[in-house]
């Protein structure tokens, strides 16, 4: 899933096609698992928050 999600941005030159973007899936999985272990619910809002606060800023910093 993650490699497919980065195919279009890589083709447009927005992200490097030579990076291993699988860490994105690892971060999302880890944050979701941590939330479940803490007894909290995992919902779409949490996933969006992780993407907005962790994933996107990290990807943007790498791509600059």
Helix amount, in percent? over 70%
Order of helices and strands: HHHH
**Alpha carbon gyration radius:** 13 Å
Helix/sheet category: mainly alpha
State the assembly state of the protein chains: single chain
Major sheet, described briefly? none
Number of strand elements: 0
Distance between the termini: 24 Å
**Number of helical stretches of at least 4 residues:** 4
Number of domains: 1
Q: Would you tell me the overall average pLDDT?
A: 81
Shape: elongated
Q: Quote the beta fraction.
A: under 5%
Low-pLDDT segments: none
Tell me what the structure shows:
The chain has 64 residues and is mainly α. The protein has one domain (2-63). The chain has four helices and no strands. The chain has helices at residues 2-5, 7-11, 22-37, 44-63.
Feature tags:
about 60 residues, mainly alpha, 4 helices
Question: Mind sketching the topology for me?
Answer:
Layout: H1 2-5, H2 7-11, H3 22-37, H4 44-63
Helix pairs in contact: 3-4
How would you concisely characterize the structure shown here?
The protein has 64 residues and is mainly alpha-helical. The chain has 4 helices and no strands.
């Amino acid at each position: 899933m993650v490699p497919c999600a980065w195919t279009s941005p890589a083709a447009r030159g927005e992200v490097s096609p030579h990076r291993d973007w699988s860490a994105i899936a690892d971060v999302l999985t880890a944050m979701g698992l941590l939330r479940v272990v803490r007894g909290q619910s995992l919902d779409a809002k949490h996933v969006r928050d992780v993407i907005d606060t962790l994933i996107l800023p990290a990807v943007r910093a790498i791509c600059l």
